[in-house]
Fold:
Amino acid sequence: MFGGPPEPMADPVAPEVSASTWRRRFGVLTAAATLVLIFIGGLVTSTGSGLAVPDWPLSYGMLMPPMVGGIFYEHGHRMAAAGVGLLSLVLAFWTWRCESRAWVRRLAWLALGAVIVQGALGGLTVLFLLPTAISVAHACLAQTFLCLLILLAYATSREWQAGSRGIEDRAGVRPAAVLATAVVYAQLLIGALMRHLGAGLAIPDFPLAFGRLVPLTWSAGVAVHFAHRVGAVLVLIAIIRLAVRAGRSREPRLARFATALAAIALLQLGLGAATVLAQKAVLPTTAHVATGAAVLGGAWLLTLRAHRLLRTSPQPFPERQPLARTVAAA
Amino acid sequence: MSMRSASVLLPLGALVVVTACAGGQAPQQTAPPSTVAAAAAVAATSATGSIAGKIGYTGSVPAAEKVKLSADPKCLAMHKDGLEKQSILVKDGGLAHVLVYVKSGIAGGSYPAPAEPALLDQNGCNYTPHVLAVQVGQPIKIRNSDDTLHNIHPRPTQNAEFNIGQPRQGMESTKTFDKPELKIPVGCDVHPWMRAYVHVLSNPFFALTQDDGSFEIKGLPAGEYEVEALHEKLAPLTGKVTVKDGEAARLDLSLQG
Structure:
């Protein structure tokens, strides 16, 4: 439909590095704006303002209603979403014009398509009075869209362009990163389900559940909430495992990034506890949503970087061998 | 038509349409809901028995909750001395906003819904009345008397949920509930403190208590009835009463706080 760029670049690496700098920055800006948008979207649900504007795409039949009460959050979310949509549109056209790699161009269009579908899901969830399935899909597509933008920005980065694949992944960072990303995504899905089922306080105490390790009585809400708590432990284990492996990878960039990711994951755990203990107060609850997106984005970016910076090792996990040799020598 | 002409005329056309819509929804005078319910009860039956009494309240009255109105300056301007939320309204020992209805003992049959609508008004960033009782199929006229916008969002479990906006003062919408359902919460998501309850009943044998807790259910045939008193916050209470033709049976109940 759109064809290729007008003039594909002759040199796939060197000229692209400088020419794509502003596009990369714009991609980073779009991803950062999306993270802010996720926070604002979280505010809509946290403040119970999801239906403060009953119509869509207009708001009370207007482009700009009075920003009072719950309208401030709901219409503010719509305005921010329109802004991110515009950024995505510009990014897609920019990429189409200037990018030589066909898959990156397709990725940019895919991101644009995703944000359009995301807007439509947002509208549908309002018109159909927040059905759980559509609201959860809206929440999950937001995270997926963020991941698409991160890939798009990273694909235009200097690190990607340099394409260093010199170091073998002997520590097994790549599979650990993939697993961590998958676990975080699953955890976000469960979190979205819990949130839109209104089960955020189905287990009212923390760290125990009704004073026990495992609840005695169960309902759908308790089950989803408990699954989210179990998921939090699994996420933490997966990310710490990833950080340990990244530390052994002899690639300091990955080690530093994974350490930062583990710190954010710990913060996220604290925010989850604060959400329960503060009875779903607006700020910790919304921060928990946005930080969850940041953890996913970080795990995803670490996965991409690990796959770019490390190459598959024919004999993974030999990192314990030096220690064994040392012991044997002693 | 040139593009330039179209760009000028289209917004004008939209303005005309919007103005026309606003004009078509001018406020109308409507009878108070309690009158409507009483009229419905009388019209539905020629029986002459009735139940009268008082719903009292036992317990301490909780402190009223102060409402934060700062989210909407227009609401704030309407309540310069502040606004308080209090669902336990007691006067002379009687409790207001209690639905008293015949729970069992009514002979089968259909009771046509009154054609006259009951009014739910948004006035002063609050609902008037706070509790509304209607028959299945009876129209409910929802009006925005405020110079600010509201959305009206009932959350029934048996009936269809809806969410409509009334951005301009004087706008009215009419809705009905087609299944019996008690205590349907109605809220405005713009102003989260706004809350009303709608009771939808299958017959006209109900009443809402006055400020002093008194009530009267008219037009009942002779018989033995189980009557329930239902308040939005308190546990319901039932009582039995025998009604004779042409006589008013007495029933006093006291809800526990």
Observations:
- Residues 105 and 229 of chain A are 39 Å apart (CA to CA).
